[in-house]
Amino acid sequence: MKSENVKDRINLASPHMSDEGYEMQYIKEAFDTNWIAPLGENVNEFERELALKVGSKSAAALTSGTAAIHLALKAVGVGEGDVVFCPTLTFSATANPIIYQNATPVFIDSDFETWNMSPKALEEAFDLYPDVKAVIVVHLYGLSADIDKIMDLCKKQNVAIIEDAAESLGTYYKGQHTGTFGDYGIFSFNGNKIITTSGGGMLVSNNEEGIAKARFWATQSRDQARHYQHSELGFNYRMSNVVAGIGRGQLKVLSERVAKKNSIYEFYRRELSELEGVEFMPNNKWDLPNYWLSCMTLTGNIRPIDIMEALEKENIESRPVWKPMHMQPFYEKYDFVGGGASEKLFEDGVCLPSDTKMTDGDLERVVRIIKGLWKD
Ligand SMILES: *Cc1c(COP(=O)(O)O)cnc(C)c1O
């Protein structure tokens, strides 16, 4: 018999397959028909089902979210020497494909109201770089950026928008799914995301021709000919039929996962928001987040490192907020527009364990440890 072990591991966010075993059913179908690779029914259906879920006309299933950003940049015509605006407060995977295209990132600050791209900093950046080719907007931690304001500015400037919704599958801005506002949107099914295929990504757009072109690039840019002929540089970026089967199963439990993430966030907020110096991530009226990670900032005597160390001692995972790109050794030579918001969020922010497998007991354990720091 297993007694309650207080040292049981609690993860930040880990893969959570459906209780019903949907994923295995789709994988089994792929095996039974020997449709292991390359493409097949699961890929086609996963694309169709995801596009339907988010309300986009078409989708291309790819090997990763990073690959999807790369092809989105190609699709909007970003090439050598072009300037691309990118939020500084994000995971490096948002920015790296700009470099793959030999383009130049300019990093844009966040604001405290959204934690995402500051429309004010974006406006300043347009003055400095009127010839910018594309803007990548990120919906960090499942919080939507203030997309209307950002879209207005981009439209005035006539510049393409790519939405990095890797962390925001299940998030709605004014009733519309994030990732479907821009010219292209991307999702990630990496292991720690709200649903996972073990690894994978999706490119979505209402531009069906653009998506068809992305599929062409993703399968080595094979021209229509009996022999192998290539008029363009190709990539091996297509999702496999087995992996897509996991995705189809996971999509069925997305709303359950969002509900659980929401209850985790509500629990932390109820229990911790009264503590001296604690402030939770923003809750804007137009935003219906997926609460991928529950995050807060600390401006009192207790610092993020105190929480992370106290939890780590009890075998519980937590994390700092993303370190801004303009502070990264690889990216610090590129321009940055804005003030100190993203640096402050990085200094003061902590991501709490937000694993959908957490029990009520696990949540109480986390809260008890954190509250303990205020009692010493
Ligand atoms: C996870 C993530 C990505 C990359 O997705 P992969 O599927 O891991 O390549 C891109 N942007 C953000 C903001 C992410 O969190």
TrEMBL record:
Offer one Pfam family short name for this entry: DegT_DnrJ_EryC1
**Family per similarity comment:** Belongs to the DegT/DnrJ/EryC1 family.
Which InterPro entries does this UniProt record tie to the protein? DegT/StrS_aminotransferase (IPR000653), PyrdxlP-dep_Trfase (IPR015424), PyrdxlP-dep_Trfase_major (IPR015421), PyrdxlP-dep_Trfase_small (IPR015422)
The record, for PANTHER family, names: DTDP-4-AMINO-4,6-DIDEOXYGALACTOSE TRANSAMINASE, TRANSAMINASE
Name any one GO molecular function: transaminase activity
Q: Does the keyword Transferase apply?
A: yes
Protein name as catalogued:
Aminotransferase class I/II-fold pyridoxal phosphate-dependent enzyme
**CDD domains named in the record:** AHBA_syn
Q: Which UniProt keywords apply?
A: Aminotransferase, Pyridoxal phosphate, Transferase
**What organism does the UniProt record list as the source?**
Sporosarcina quadrami
Q: Is-annotated flag, keyword Cell membrane?
A: no
